[in-house]
Amino acid sequence: MNIRVGQGFDVHAFGSGDHVMLGGVRIAHDRGVIAHSDGDVAIHALCDALLGALALGDIGRHFPPGDARWKAADSRILLREVVAMLDARGYRLGNADVTVICERPRVAPHVAAMSAALAADLGCDPAALSVKATTSETLGFTGRGEGIAALAIVLIVSAT
C-alpha cells in the first residue's frame, strides 16, 4: 500500500463582516475575514495538506488570488477540485485532522456541521475526519482577536 502524508496551515486577518466560514459552515460573528475567496481557513489548510501529500504545491498555485474566478469563491468548490486531483492520481483520503485556532467565534458548537460538510466534500466516512478547535490562551494575533488560523494533517492511501 502506498501512503503519503501532508500538512497545511492557513491564516486570515479579521475585517468587516458579520460571519466567518469554517469547514464549509457559515458562523455568525461580529467580524468577517480579509480574503480573496470566502476565507475558510479550515478548508484552505485541508486543501494545502492534500496538495502537499500529492506533492502538488499549495492552494495559491492552483487557485491564485489574482484570478478573478476565485473572487469570493466558496472554498468547498476548491476542496472538491483538490479531491478530484486526488482521485485522478489514484489516491483516497485515509484520514484527516483539522484544528481551528481562535479565541472567537466559538467553534465547538459547529464541529458536527463542519465535519458533515467536509466529509461530504471529501467523499469519506465522517469517522475518518477529526475537526476540533483551540485557543491560543490570549497570546499572539489569534489571542488578541486579530485573526483566525487552522492546521490540517492528512494521510492519503493509494486507491488500488
Beta-strand level of the residues, as a percent range?
25-35%
- Give helix and strand order, one letter per element, not per position: EEEEHHHEHEHE
SSE class: alpha+beta
Let me know the average pLDDT: 96
What is the CATH architecture annotation? Answer: 2-Layer Sandwich
Q: What is the helix content?
A: 25-40%
Give a verbal description of the structure.
With 160 residues, this protein is α+β, with helices and mostly antiparallel strands. The chain has a single domain (3-158), classed as 2-C-methyl-D-erythritol 2,4-cyclodiphosphate synthase (60s Ribosomal Protein L30, Chain: A, 2-Layer Sandwich). The protein is 29% helix and 32% strand. The protein has 5 helices and 7 strands, in the order ββββαααβαβαβ. It has helices spanning 41-53, 59-62, 75-88, 111-122, 140-143; strands at residues 3-15, 19-22, 25-28, 32-33, 91-101, 129-134, 147-158. Strands 4-1-7-5-6 form a 5-stranded mixed beta sheet. A two-stranded antiparallel ribbon has the order 2-3. It is globular. The model has no long low-confidence stretch (mean pLDDT 96).
Short description:
By secondary structure, the chain is α+β, with helices and mostly antiparallel strands. The chain has helices spanning 41-53, 59-62, 75-88, 111-122, 140-143, and strands spanning 3-15, 19-22, 25-28, 32-33, 91-101, 129-134, 147-158.
Write the layout of secondary structure elements.
Elements: E1 3-15, E2 19-22, E3 25-28, E4 32-33, H1 41-53, H2 59-62, H3 75-88, E5 91-101, H4 111-122, E6 129-134, H5 140-143, E7 147-158
Parallel strand pairs: 5-6
Antiparallel strand pairs: 1-4, 1-7, 2-3, 5-7
Helix pairs in contact: 1-3
